Amino acid sequence: MNTLKIIQFSTCILLFFAISSCQSDDSEAVINLENTEKLSDIIANRTVETGAVIACAASDANNSDIVNVYYYLEEGASNVQFFETNTANVDKNDYTNYRRLAITSTPLFEGYIEQFTRSFGEDQWVIVTYELNDEIKLSNPIRTKNISKPTVWTNEITINQETSKMPLFSWEHNTNGDNAIYFQIVSTVDNGLLSGTYTNENKFQYYDTSNVVLNISEENPIDLTINNSYKFTLMDVSADNWVNTVIQDIFVAQ
């Protein structure tokens, strides 16, 4: 039987990664970046790989002053650092513009994803780094846009469950402009990660990787259980790694 379900808005589950929108003590701190280390100094005379840390950022669902910076931590990585500029009106590729900010990250989805949370009063540039195999790995610059283009949060997703235990998720393409790639997470309702994938297309089928361009999860995740509830999360990511749209909702496997 062909089951086509258009998910309707439900405020009780408008939570991304089950994170509270409350600010942390770190995000409330008054920070003078001029007194902290420059990224250019830290990477001097070191082996560096740019674009090696998968990362993006989104404004909070309930408070656009708050930005969550998400990144994928490779096994064995250490010494994670967070760097930011004082303004967006600088050369994003000039590492002298980035200063280290001493804040800690929080593991999500059983540690597959990590998150920094920070209050931003204006648009800025952010870079996440860590060390692995005697190299310093850098993310591409992330343009925070919580002031100029806050992340849109919704749960308008179409789920086709014609193939049992292999739901096909689809969504409107580039609804808020500037799309570069889509990131999908299928998880248990309590955020146990089942799959984490990237596609260029505005669709993903669990678990068909024919259109997947990057996979951060196990290649063969567990089968869905019929009548069990699961969570689907979608991030529409721009070329400068800002999340334009977050789609998230609960579905029942058929």
UniProtKB/TrEMBL annotation:
PROSITE patterns: PROKAR_LIPOPROTEIN
Alphabetical keyword list: Signal
Signal peptide: 1-24
Name of this chain's protein: Lipoprotein
Provenance organism: Kordia algicida OT-1
Species classification: Bacteria, Pseudomonadati, Bacteroidota, Flavobacteriia, Flavobacteriales
